[in-house]
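testing teh design pipeline on a random one, pls ignore if ur not involved
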């Protein structure tokens, strides 16, 4: 699935920017520096908005396309801020038969999410969880 850039306004602080610049300086002359720099950038900001990727590109003297390419390729990197509350609805066969599809549709409608949600930018992301043993709980 293609990662989409966030539409949430960037709210980084000067302190965060200085910390990121220090990380970039630490790794500037290290071969293979992109991964550790992006990992620490995500720790500092919580995600990797384009503004952060621009700082990394500038400080490491690489193109923004190269930084974006790495950030968008690896699933460990998030280009969107995480929501404050994560709602998980099981969509496995057993759950779906018991009505989870209706719950999922209702949750999407009430949170204004699209039918096939991309990475959510609102405070309540909706995503299907990994299949688990919760189907036993639905047998009632």
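output:
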């Amino acid at each position: 699935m293609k990662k989409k850039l966030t539409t949430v306004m960037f709210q980084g602080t000067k302190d965060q920017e200085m910390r990121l610049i220090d990380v970039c300086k630490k790794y500037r002359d290290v071969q293979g520096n992109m991964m550790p720099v992006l990992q620490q950038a995500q720790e500092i900001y919580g995600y990797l908005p384009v503004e952060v990727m621009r700082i990394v590109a500038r400080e490491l003297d690489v193109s923004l396309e190269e930084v974006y390419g790495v950030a968008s390729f690896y699933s460990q990197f998030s280009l969107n801020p995480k929501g404050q509350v994560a709602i998980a609805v099981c969509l496995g066969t057993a759950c779906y038969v018991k009505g989870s599809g209706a719950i999922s549709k209702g949750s999407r409608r009430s949170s204004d999410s699209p039918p096939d949600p991309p990475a959510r930018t609102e405070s309540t992301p909706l995503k299907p969880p990994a299949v688990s043993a919760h189907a036993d709980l639905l047998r009632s």
